[in-house]
């Protein structure tokens, strides 16, 4: 017969079917449960509650950060040993705090310090454990506690915790016997650092007050060890789950550079470090050891790759150079060919501004110098002692960036070669080098939302009047009708001649009438305007006026009259602009002149031709998203740096202000959400030569593509010939 159906109360999920063994009969202890889909049911008699999701998926899933590091210091050593710890290993740990009893008037730069107000060692340890549990106990899996006279190999400590299970109560360090105590009980020596798991910290917290009152000890590490053993029964261990906590005790007058013992090279922690110089020498020596190990591993891997490549169908010919680095990018057409940039020791022949030749300076000069030094070092390493090379001149240099592997170089060097007998001669040698892409890192960014109000700023001149109606219609349709959180401020830029006649003829009267109509249609909307009189409408001067009339936390979107506002872009403006961190300069898509592109065949591109008949205008910096506070900070630095402000401001745009006078990230990216119809921009000759040249280039490159221009010229020549 049909299987029997079970009746369930409304809204109550059905219990899972009993487990069945492979034979079909139910059996105890069988774990292979069959999943069941339980339909969602909401009781209509109960009020609906909106589910609040967490800000980060990491919070919702209960993930913890892996490692928290606490450094115990003192007022006497805060500016010496603690600073040395901060400069050597602090940047390798994800989170590091310094704990002290008392502190001085000034805390060293870049250090997060917690002062407990009492220098007694036991009190400092008690308060530190309390603080760690209260503020970080729920966020981290492992807690590493060290002193400021300890040198810890940060990468080794991080690797250690990745191999340990978080489900055990762990008290790991250099195990020491209590003086006159039980031989079985051990505590972790504080000088060599020790690792405590989150589960042990949570169990220890209720007993810390009892430990403070009942356990007497001079040393804080002994006190903590006795507390953990007496109340939790967990002694310190130096080995756990197959992982060893290696340490090394430094003798007096030790020379780290001469230490070659295996015990020293394998140490996770070294103690005692008596002064800052010794800390830096230790860091240098351990960095050299790790670098040698890395090079050794690379050589072993390259040998394995060569051996395996010989067994592939391609054979040894399939081996790429350098071994282990991706093969060069193979273009499928001439449009995908990556061009080489030519350079000498003094000049670069592929310049960012498009000029054919510019001086080699800054990062590019440092890059070329480093590459030549490395090439010479490798040549000497290969041919010594038979030959010794020294550089005379760089004859030719070529470089290109291959996104699949990194920066490639080809150098033609004029070298002087000296033999073992002292004979010297000149020779030219070509070398090839690759600076491979290293490990990709995710840069942490501050959290932003799409709820921020955007303040649009639209500067208008007399030449822009023909395009204002379309801008306002688009703004009303895409922001006012959709109730987007965006406001608009108009900036009327009057020429001095027009400003004198504003009582008789206002050139912006039509625009003001359009604004009045919008405010009547949308009763809750107010569109203010600001009138400015100037012959040179400098972007920075205009922004100075707007900035003073808005709060410091205002998010500005500086637009142009050809900008077509839409919700998609406004959300990207909100997400890509971060206060005190990043400003956003989108590159809009400029459609070509339809008279040249379509030649009467059609008047507008269809939906399938979106972003086809046009280009991204990299010469335009008219659109920008930034916070008022960031602009004011950069503008203050500019005012303090220059004397003749009027002349300088006429040669600058807002982009230049942020580029030169702010330490913020400048995010410059193509923006498919900003599409502008073709229009011939009017270039003001009163602006600087660079800005005028940039405007002219924008107009010329916005005419049409090369193929369209060639077709138009060909048709014109045919017409002239007939």
Structural class, from helix and strand content? alpha/beta
How much strand? Answer: 15-25%
Q: What's the CATH class label of the largest domain?
A: Alpha Beta
Number of domains: 3
**CATH fold annotation of the largest domain:** Spore Coat Polysaccharide Biosynthesis Protein SpsA, Chain A
Number of helices: 21
Please characterize this protein's 3D structure.
Belongs to the chondroitin N-acetylgalactosaminyltransferase family. This is Hexosyltransferase. It is an enzyme of class 2 (transferase). Keywords: Coiled coil, Glycoprotein, Golgi apparatus, Membrane, Signal-anchor, Transferase, Transmembrane, Transmembrane helix. Its EC number is 2.4.1.-. It contains 21 helices and 27 strands. With 722 residues, it is α/β, with parallel strands linked by helices. It has 3 domains: 214 residues, Spore Coat Polysaccharide Biosynthesis Protein SpsA, Chain A; 96 residues, Roll (Nuclear Transport Factor 2, Chain: A), CATH 3.10.450; 249 residues, Spore Coat Polysaccharide Biosynthesis Protein SpsA, Chain A. The strands form 8 sheets. Strands 3-2-1-4-9-6 form a 6-stranded mixed β-sheet. Strands 22-21-20-23-26 form a 5-stranded mixed β-sheet. Helix 11 packs parallel to helix 13 and helix 17 packs across helix 19. It starts with 56 loop residues before the first helix and ends with a helix.
Secondary structure layout plus pairing:
Blueprint: H1 57-60, E1 65-72, H2 81-88, E2 96-100, E3 113-115, H3 121-136, E4 140-147, E5 151-152, H4 154-162, E6 171-173, E7 175-177, E8 186-188, E9 194-197, H5 198-204, H6 208-214, H7 220-232, E10 239-240, E11 243-244, E12 247-249, H8 262-265, E13 269-271, H9 276-309, E14 341-343, E15 347-348, E16 358-359, H10 362-383, E17 387-402, E18 406-419, E19 424-436, E20 454-460, H11 465-480, E21 486-494, H12 496-500, H13 509-521, E22 529-533, H14 539-548, E23 555-558, H15 567-576, E24 582-591, H16 594-597, E25 614-616, E26 624-627, H17 628-641, H18 645-650, H19 654-661, E27 665-676, H20 689-701, H21 706-721
Parallel strand pairs: 1-2, 1-4, 2-3, 12-13, 20-21, 20-23, 21-22, 24-27
Antiparallel strand pairs: 4-9, 5-13, 6-9, 7-8, 10-11, 14-17, 15-16, 17-18, 18-19, 23-26, 24-25
